[in-house]
């Protein structure tokens, strides 16, 4: 699973401590036995960032390079907590605006599509105000 977390008009981006690419991406992880996808989102976000999320909603999926894997993408809302990184997973993370953020994955990836979908959601909320 992979998730983009919304906090008002900003979203969380993180840089992996394991990947040397020079861009930020989203929180991702694996579903444990007996866990729902939504429970995995809550657990992975809490483990890797110390944050609590709610209003978890499915956005899209993408085949993943591992054999027989499917990456399932979600958008979730920040519920609470202070950003506290699991250092063996994340080197850096922060809240960014749609028009001011570090390099991100292209829209050909599920991470890129999730970020784009959230940017559209934020822009839609602004135009409704």
From TrEMBL:
InterPro entries: NAD-cap_RNA_hydrolase_NudC (IPR050241), NudC-like_C (IPR049734), Nudix_hydrolase (IPR020476), NUDIX_hydrolase-like_dom_sf (IPR015797), NUDIX_hydrolase_CS (IPR020084), NUDIX_hydrolase_dom (IPR000086). GO terms for molecular function: metal ion binding; NADH pyrophosphatase activity; RNA NAD-cap (NMN-forming) hydrolase activity. Its cofactor is Mg(2+); Zn(2+). Its EC number is 3.6.1.22. Residues 1-119 form the Nudix hydrolase domain. Keywords: Hydrolase, Magnesium, Metal-binding, NAD. CDD domains: NUDIX_NADH_pyrophosphatase_Nudt13 (cd03429). Coiled coil: none annotated. Belongs to the Nudix hydrolase family. NudC subfamily. This is NAD(+) diphosphatase. It comes from Marinobacter excellens HL-55.
């Amino acid at each position: 699973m992979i998730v983009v977390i919304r906090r008002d008009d900003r979203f969380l981006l993180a840089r992996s401590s394991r990947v040397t690419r020079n861009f930020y991406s989203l929180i991702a992880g694996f579903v444990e036995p007996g866990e729902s996808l939504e429970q995995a989102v809550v657990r992975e976000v809490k483990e890797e960032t110390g944050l609590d999320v709610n209003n978890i909603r499915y956005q899209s999926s993408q085949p993943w390079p591992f054999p027989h894997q499917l990456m399932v993408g979600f958008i979730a809302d920040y519920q609470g907590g202070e950003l506290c990184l699991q250092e063996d997973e994340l080197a850096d993370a922060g809240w960014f605006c749609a028009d001011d953020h570090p390099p991100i994955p292209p829209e050909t990836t599920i991470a890129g599509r999730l970020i784009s979908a959230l940017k559209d959601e934020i822009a839609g909320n602004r135009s409704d105000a």
